[in-house]
Amino acid sequence: MAALLALLLIASPLPGAGSAPAALGSATTTSLQQAYELTATLDLPDGRLHAVERVTFTNRAGYPIGHVNLSVLPRAFGYFAFTGKVLVNGEAADVSWTTTTNLRVELGQSLAPGQTARLRIPFRLRIGSSGGAFTARLSRDRGVISFGEWFPILSRQHDSYGVGDPQVTRTADEISLELTTSGPLPRNAVACAGLERAPATRGWHWRCRARQVRDFSFVVNPHFQLSRRWVDGVAIRVYTETVSGGITANRARTALATLNARYGQYPWKDLVLAEVGAEGGFSMEYPRAIHLTRSKVRDPYVIYHEVAHQWFYAQLGNDQMREPWLDEGFADFTARWLMGIGEHQCSGREVDSSVFAWPAGKTAGGDWLSCDGYFHTVFYKGTEFLNKVRNAMGRGAFFSALRSYIAANRYGLISTRGLLDFMQSRSDTSLQPLYRRYLDAYDP
After folding, report:
1. Alpha-carbon span 413 to 423, nearest angstrom
2. Which of 140, 165, 248, 253 has its CA 20 to 30 A from that of 364?
3. From CA 305, how far away is CA 336, in angstroms rounded?
4. C-alpha to C-alpha distance for 444 and 440, rounded to whole angstroms
5. Can you give the pTM of this predicted structure?
6. What are phi and psi of 424, to 5 degrees?
């Protein structure tokens, strides 16, 4: 831990740092149409990845902007370093770290509404074992590397935090990866959504491309075995090493089929579930992809919970630091409903508490398990609240309202007020007493 804290105190070299940044008051926005193109070379045994990222974005705000913010979570672990200058439209940009993980890039111009800019970010990662809440995100364990929240991505300004999901992203038109490995690996060694190219048997090159996603992840393990299932035209691919993937694939198929009926059709062509190298810790969801720790590969609750995140987060995005219940509460509710089990919560906190209600460090810490901890409040009490809303509305009206809301807001960012006001508009019963009882947002 002391070594990690030391790394956090050392600022990475900043390309262009010799120039003064633009005025601190210059405008920015997260209302950006965006696309990402990543070209990377991976040395798997050494845990090193060298990448060049190209980001194309268009200002969709109603005013000019002078800078953008990118979330760079690998920097919190000391994994990240630049390998060249950050460029904006081919010119060296002034950049600065405004938090441990927020990279501010000056555009060097006033980008008017409707105008497009292009970033080029060369960087490398030297990945270690992350542990804690980040076990299944970006981590190297037992010869396996999971790449979650691994590249600079446009976001609002924030910092890494040891509770919840410290990244807020909007849907990109496309995120693509061209991956080359330092040595030949089996075809199924790379688990990624949108797989377009892979070696016939063994080789060095993979290409993955995902459209309409707010993030992109992959896992690399030369010992992966592949299990497949299909449901409603969606290919489910399960990559495992320590167990056969058949049970996992069957449970993912059951969840996907049921949630297609309850929440509306899953909108992508595949869903990837991959076993990471860590034994314990937390599994993790990404759009079209799920990372499972080794102790949870066949766990029905975890599989159902992470599949539910394909609707609540992947399709309906939210600010997971300010309102984590909007994805975790719905994922817990869905998993428990599919399993027919209750919530058993004992929290006295409001369901819509922010992650900052639980003090934590940049990469570890926080009260996860006590009665007033993160799980009992955001997950279990969130489920209790949603069960009461469903009972008040009636099962048919409840799921019908959710399907309509998801269809109308797919790929966007939602809020507690927006969602629950919509549910009230579709209910013949007043839900306000429940809202006031469980939520800070509806306190008088």
Report:
1. 17
2. 248
3. 8
4. 9
5. 0.93
6. -60, -40
